[in-house]
TrEMBL record:
<dbReference type="InterPro" id="IPR002213">
    <property type="entry name" value="UDP_glucos_trans"/>
</dbReference>
<comment type="pathway">
    <text>Pigment biosynthesis; anthocyanin biosynthesis.</text>
</comment>
<keyword id="KW-0808">Transferase</keyword>
<dbReference type="GO" id="GO:0009718">
    <property type="term" value="P:anthocyanin-containing compound biosynthetic process"/>
</dbReference>
<dbReference type="InterPro" id="IPR035595">
    <property type="entry name" value="UDP_glycos_trans_CS"/>
</dbReference>
<comment type="similarity">
    <text>Belongs to the UDP-glycosyltransferase family.</text>
</comment>
<dbReference type="InterPro" id="IPR050481">
    <property type="entry name" value="UDP-glycosyltransf_plant"/>
</dbReference>
<dbReference type="GO" id="GO:0035251">
    <property type="term" value="F:UDP-glucosyltransferase activity"/>
</dbReference>
<dbReference type="Pfam" id="PF00201">
    <property type="entry name" value="UDPGT"/>
</dbReference>
<protein>
    <recommendedName>
        <fullName>Glycosyltransferase</fullName>
        <ecNumber>2.4.1.-</ecNumber>
    </recommendedName>
</protein>
<keyword id="KW-0328">Glycosyltransferase</keyword>
């Protein structure tokens, strides 16, 4: 029996794409998917729909909320300060979603931020709900097991049964870099009269099962921890990455620039589509890369208070690095750049998607420069547990200096460096496991088997 599944992700491309990647894997096995997306997101993601006969994009009309720019549909259209208003708009999709589900009567609805989906599914009847987490399970464990007084984890006895790995949150300790920001974010309003904490907690409590975009070999401890806390199934989808394509860079400017350099010599730095650096930190970043004396390619958003990266550069910098440094503030094809023979090092912000891409789809040395809350947890996993990269040292305020960035890059890029050889070999072994024949597909097959099991409960 083919399953009929509705996917309803949060209004961010960092959520749309993992939901679509999973949809492709399910459709590959004959299941029918309805992916609910705003119009502009449909246009941008159309080419990633590998099974248009089985995956249908259903257009959402995003309600306008006072204070939002007209036409805003996703987090890419608003500054972070307005995301709470976007969440209010998101919740006002309730009637659209209700009408759609009543007409379709799917077997499952997969959601993440729409905490009201489980209650709606119960009202309609006959629909199972899965809360699909596309961020690291460590962050999920913090976000979902905080007590209302914001100071302690819930169910401490259960937490003691499954100890998170060293360097990760325990029942009493949270990484100091992200604690204050995390608490502020969790308990601030995220939508109309609902906090992010309440949004996340209600969805997980009400759903039939929790799905996590990871594999047990890497983050199974946290899956067990979450399952113990909420006493419900935790299903693993695996990383769910698209098949790498052996295609050349279509951007002649990038291709011609990279071809100038020796294999494995270029440092590539990219910080995702939403992260914006402070101007001073951007300057430390590019100055640190200059100090390495290696060729470097940087793709970041314009720093805070500027209209372009060029505007933020210190006087004389562009002239000094014009032969070996390329700094862009536009979208670049990250995977194709990482797979280019000239690229030998990836300086990453440690977003969850970038983390998995760097582990599975590239052979580069990894330098970790995490910024927001959950990205720090991803960096700890990669450096302390998997030992596949080096994190850049920061001060007590979470800021880095050009010297510390240069030191980390040289540490992994120096062919005589014991640490560099060590993390490279660990990365090679892990990639070999994760990309071994049948590894990823077995996760999807088991995931589908578990979905059928939920239907008969």
């Amino acid at each position: 029996m083919a399953l009929q599944i509705v996917m309803f992700p949060w209004l961010a491309f960092g959520h749309f794409i993992p939901f679509l990647n999973l949809s492709n894997e399910l459709a590959k096995r004959g299941h029918k998917i309805s992916l609910l997306l705003p119009k502009n997101a449909q246009i941008r993601l159309q080419n990633l729909n590998l099974y248009p006969d089985l995956i249908t994009f259903h257009k959402l009309t995003i309600p306008h909320v006072h204070g939002l720019p007209y036409g805003a549909e996703t987090t890419a259209d608003v500054p972070s300060s307005l995301e709470s208003l976007l969440a209010t708009s998101f919740d006002e999709l309730y009637d659209q979603i209700k009408s759609f589900l009543q007409n379709l009567k799917p077997h499952f609805v997969f959601f993440d931020f729409a905490y009201w989906i489980p209650d709606l599914a119960l009202e309609i009847g006959g629909i199972k709900t899965l809360c699909y987490k596309v961020v690291c399970p460590a962050a999920t464990s913090i976000a979902l097991t905080r007590s209302p007084d914001k100071t302690t984890f819930m169910a401490s006895t259960a937490a003691d049964i499954v100890k998170p790995p060293p360097g990760y949150p325990s029942t009493t300790v949270v990484l100091h870099e992200c604690e204050a920001k995390l608490l502020s974010f969790l308990f601030n309003e995220y939508g109309n009269r609902v906090s992010f904490y309440e949004r996340s907690k209600k969805g997980v409590i009400g759903c039939d099962a929790i799905a996590i975009k990871t594999c047990r070999e890497i983050e199974g401890t946290f899956g067990d921890y979450i399952a113990t806390q909420f006493e419900k199934p935790v299903l693993y989808t695996g990383p769910v990455l698209p098949e790498p394509k052996k295609e050349p860079l279509e951007d002649d400017r990038l291709s011609n620039w990279l071809e100038k350099f020796k294999p494995g010599s270029v440092v590539f730095c990219a910080f995702g589509s939403q992260m914006i650096l402070e101007k001073k930190q951007f300057q430390e970043l590019v100055l640190g890369l200059e100090l390495t004396e290696l060729p470097f390619l940087v793709a970041v958003k314009p720093p805070e208070g500027t209209n372009s990266v060029e505007e933020a550069l210190l006087e004389g910098f562009k002239e000094r690095v014009q032969e070996k440094g390329l700094i862009l503030d536009c979208w670049v094809p990250q995977l194709k750049i990482l797979s280019h023979k000239s690229v030998g090092c990836f300086v990453s912000h440690c977003g969850y998607g970038s983390m998995w891409e760097s582990l599975v789809l590239c052979d580069c040395q990894l330098v970790l420069l995490p910024r927001p809350m959950d990205h720090i947890l991803n960096a700890r996993l990669m450096e302390q547990e998997l030992k596949v990269g080096i994190e850049v040292e920061k001060d007590e305020n979470g800021c880095f200096l050009k010297e510390s960035l240069c030191k980390a890059v040289k540490c992994v890029m120096d062919k005589e460096s014991q640490i560099g050889c060590f993390v490279k070999e660990n990365h090679r072994k892990l990639k070999e496991l994760l990309s071994s024949p049948g590894f990823m597909s077995n996760y999807i097959d088991n995931f589908i088997h578990n979905l059928y099991g939920l239907l008969v409960e």
